[in-house]
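input
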Amino acid sequence: MSRTFALTIPVLPGELRDSVCCAYLLCRIADTIEDRADLDDARRAALFDTFSGLLVEPDDDALLARFATLWPKREGSADDAAYQPLMRQLAPVIVAHASLTPRQRAPINDCVLEMIDGMRLMVRKPPERGVLHICSDLEELERYCHYVAGTVGLMLTQLFADHLGAGSTFSADAQREHGHRFGLGLQLTNILKDHRVDLSRNVSFFPAEWLDTRRSNGTPAQGLLPQYKHRLVERTLEHLEAAHLYTLALPPEPQGLRLFCLWALWMSAATMREVACSTAPHPKISRAEVGEIVSASQRHVADDAALEAHFRRYVDDAREAAALLAGDHLHDSN
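output
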């Protein structure tokens, strides 16, 4: 589940805020199990089994004890250390999840269980030239994004629809595809934004042939080749355009639902501009721009035309930067 959503959860209405916060923590636990590098396959599988069991049987103290025994007591990487308190406090998260209504728990369970199934299915390939490549093509990349983020978009769609009630114009059935693509767009943004940092850890979500290896004896140093970056920026923007339609389909009241989506959406679109035009190891938007996004979205939350204009500006800027990138590549190749 995108960390961007974690920053926006507090703006949601109370009951919905609680269920989405709980869902975020459960997804983060699954991510942490998957990402822990020093787990062997058998222990990772046992942790997934135990965690899945707790979602279905939250009162099973034996499962809680088993999880505590299986999870390493030592801290791994810096990222592992950041989530170690969460992993040690699994019980309160499970209790909070169990306190939700059945209609809230059902889509959360569907999301997290499918996420775990997907993590099991994504085969760990042997490294190439010292780099672990998670995905072999665009189809596999988007399948990965579905498991870790598209499922979240589907879950949120159901939670939103249930919160708004049968009288709302927001229909879960009508918005499922757009909600799914919202998740894909945010996840692709994060992967593109972080891909150079991932490469420094000898990990890449992209196949080896998409990467520039000219500077360091076969170990990718420069990140994506321009033609592949252009292609992925465009694909991500297409998903974000679906997310924009999804956001406008939400009613302007309560404002928190639109703001929750707008902040994540606009920050992602603005980040794609930085990804397209920046050579920094970790391209990101400025704090000032984050402030502008928050202010403008609050000011225009009920004005669809103004929201369209703001979003279009972010997308057009990103597309222009990506087109310049592609043009420079063609010029260099000639």
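quick obs: The mean pLDDT is 90.
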